[in-house]
Amino acid sequence: MQIEEPALGGVVKRLRRAEGQIRGVIAMLEDGRDCSEVVMQLAAVSRALDRAGFKVIASGLEQCLSAKAAGQSTDVNLDALERMFLSLA
User: Fold this and answer.
1) Sign, Cα dihedral of 53, 57, 58, 63
2) 3-class state of residue 20 by DSSP
3) Domain formed by 5-88, architecture
4) Under a CB-based contact definition with an 8 Å cutoff, are residues 85 and 57 in contact?
5) Structural contact between residues 53 and 15, judged by C-beta atoms closer than 8 angstroms
6) Is-contact 59 4, C-beta < 8 A?
7) Which of 6, 22, 35, 89 has CA 20 to 30 A from 51's CA?
8) CA pair distance 87, 85, nearest whole angstrom
């Protein structure tokens, strides 16, 4: 399963945002910022990464459901999607 173009842009945007947040966390650590502020930012990065992962899974499910509704066979493996979902849960 590959991520289709409409979902790909959103996933990349989320990951770039998380990338910036990680750089910010590193700068906070290097500047000796309070640990509670660092942890808060780490939690935000974690949520951003989770959202990106769930978007990938949702895209796969959408592909599968669209193909089935159109009467087409699909190469989407539902067991693999379930394992991916559970790895993020």
Assistant:
1) positive
2) helix
3) Up-down Bundle (1.20)
4) yes
5) no
6) yes
7) 35
8) 5
Q: What is the pLDDT of residues 38-87, one digit of tens each?
A: 999 999 999 999 988 888 888 877 776 776 677 776 666 777 777 877 88
Q: How does DSSP classify residue 74?
A: -
CA–CA gap between residue 23 and residue 82 (Å, rounded): 32
Structure tokens at 64: 């599968």
CA-based end-to-end distance of the chain: 20
Write down the domain spans for the chain.
5-88
Q: Which of 72, 49, 74, 50 is nearest to 61 (CA)?
A: 74
pLDDT for the residue numbered 60: 75
The DSSP secondary-structure symbol of 71 reads: T
